[in-house]
Amino acid sequence: MTSDAAPERAAATLPDGRELTVRLAVPADAPAILDMVHRAFLARPVAGERPDALKDDVRSIEARLDNGLGYLTLIDDRPVGVVMVARQRGALRLGRVCVLPEHRRLGVASFTVDVVLEDLAVRGEERVQLLARQEFPSLQAWWRRHGFEAQGVEGNCVVMARLLPVAVEVPDADAMRGLGLRLAPLLRAGDLIIASGDLGSGKTTLAQGVGAGLGVAGPVISPTFVLARVHPSRDERPALVHADAYRLGGAAELDDLGLDDSVAASVTFVEWGAGVAEALASDRLEIDIRRGIDPDDETRWVFLTPIGARWSHDALATAAKGDA
Ligand SMILES: Nc1ncnc2c1ncn2[C@@H]1O[C@H](COP(=O)(O)OP(=O)(O)O)[C@@H](O)[C@H]1O
Ligand SMILES: [Mg+2]
After folding, report:
1. pLDDT per residue over 45-79, tens digit each?
2. Counting C-beta atoms within 10 Å of the first and last residue's C-beta, which end of the chain has fewer, N or C?
3. Distance from the alpha carbon of residue 171 to the mean position of ligand 1, in angstroms
4. E strand segments, 1-90
5. What is the three-state SS of 149-182?
6. In Å, what is the CA distance from 120 to each residue of 38, 114, 215?
7. From CA 286, how far away is CA 278, in angstroms rounded?
8. 8 Å CB contact between 282 and 308
9. Is there an atom of ligand 1 within 6 Å of 298 CB?
10. In 3D, which of 262, 290, 257 has the Cα closest to residue 114?
């Protein structure tokens, strides 16, 4: 595992306006990491054995950073959480995942884990594991909500694992359309794609490629003002229903669009649909588009996360990566 592909700092704004960032840890962070790990793990309910994390010292943290990766989460530049990554028995494992007790319930852990999973995907990793103590079912439930599933038992822990998102580097707008073109042959009637990413990240550009691949009539343009547009295919492929959920108040307003009726016969592509459009189908393909902090850099990273039995992760990875 190399750490020279250091991630750019990933940032988000908390509801109270403070800035949340995640960056790679460096050896000089070891004392701060140790302090967080001890405070966070001491605050956990005591069950069974003392967690190994309480036996850490600065040297053991330095050794972990040396042999693997560490990610540090900061609020306004103060460290509040950590995730360590190490290769153990041939598998990549997350460990020492913690957030300081006074910063819980803000979504810090979810944000951090999402950034870590995306960064590991960018590094070419495919699968990740972790150990969750058996005595804490709510901890296991939290990891299940983040895509992990139990796959065995090790000592007093459940081994949980998940596939990482498929990461695709997209240098320019044509390459984004190319990605849509390559995904289109995999798509069939009833499929739901939920695309997320900031304004101008390339969601509509991707939809254009998907539309071209499905052979649809009419230009695929931003549906912001009409909320949803139906593009019938000229090639006996399903129609593309292209919707924009940005202005919708929530799932109830989405119902008003009547997409339910068209979903079964079409490929439905919803921009800004996260948290709103999931109910349209049982399975879905989530697509997250990220751009770096340098505004002059046009490169996007696209993360594809298949949800449900409909999708084959391998087929998606093969199609998405193409010859690139
Ligand atoms: N790598 C890239 N991928 C996608 N679009 C890009 C890329 N580089 C530059 N662009 C430009 O960024 C803009 C993306 O706009 P659009 O697809 O409408 O975004 P969104 O629908 O996410 O708001 C387009 O003007 C496109 O030409
Ligand atoms: Mg758009």
Report:
1. 776 777 788 999 999 999 999 999 999 999 998 99
2. C
3. 11
4. 10-13, 19-24, 69-75, 78-88
5. EEEEEECCEEEEEEECCEEEEECCHHHHHHHHHH
6. 25, 10, 35
7. 10
8. yes
9. yes
10. 290
CA 265 to chain centre: 28
| pLDDT in the model for residue 251 | 72
> What is d(CA 235, CA 300) in angstroms, rounded to the nearest whole number?
30
Residue 296 three-state SS: coil
Low-confidence stretches of the chain (pLDDT < 50) are 1-6, 324
Counting every residue, how long is the chain? 324
Show Cβ contacts of residue 313 under 8 Å, excluding neighbours closer than 6 positions. Answer: 163, 166, 306
pLDDT score for 6: 45
Instruction: State the ligand closest to the CA atom of 176.
Output: 1
Q: What is the pLDDT of residue 3?
A: 42
Nearest CA to ligand 1 atom 26: 173
Question: How far does residue 83's CA lie from ligand 1's centre (Å)?
Answer: 32
Neighbours of ion ligand 2 (CB under 5 A): 203-204, 222, 271
The structural domains of the chain, ordered by start, are 10-163 (3.40.630.30), 166-321 (3.40.50.300)
Q: Are 25 and 37 in contact (CB under 8 A)?
A: no
317 vs 21: CA distance, rounded Å: 29
pLDDT given at position 224: 65
User: What is the pLDDT, as a whole number, of residue 161?
Assistant: 97
Q: Going by DSSP bridges, is the β-strand pair 78-88/166-170 parallel, antiparallel, or unpaired?
A: unpaired
The Cα-based distances of 90 to 80, 128, 129, 158 in angstroms read 30, 11, 11, 17
